[in-house]
Design brief:
- The protein is rod-shaped, with a radius of gyration of 28 Å.
- It has one domain.
- It is an all-alpha fold.
- Helix content is about 70%, strand content about 0%.
- The longest helix is centred in the middle third of the chain and has 42 residues.
Length: about 60
């Protein structure tokens, strides 16, 4: 089975296109997950409070 040059280039281009699409989806997933983590960290610090406790020396 002999594949012509134009068909071979079309197949290679198709594989490259699919690879770019998968890479793009992976990058979008990673960056979207990072924004979710950043939002969790930011909202977590808003709910924090500082408590100061002083122990007096009885002497």
């Amino acid at each position: 089975m002999k594949i012509s040059r134009s068909k071979l280039i079309a197949i290679i281009t198709g594989f490259i296109s699919i690879l770019i699409c998968i890479l793009y989806l992976l990058l979008i997933t990673v960056f979207d997950f990072r924004s979710f983590l950043n939002n969790q960290i930011a909202s977590h610090s808003a709910n924090m409070a500082a408590i100061f406790f002083e122990i007096l020396d009885p002497r």
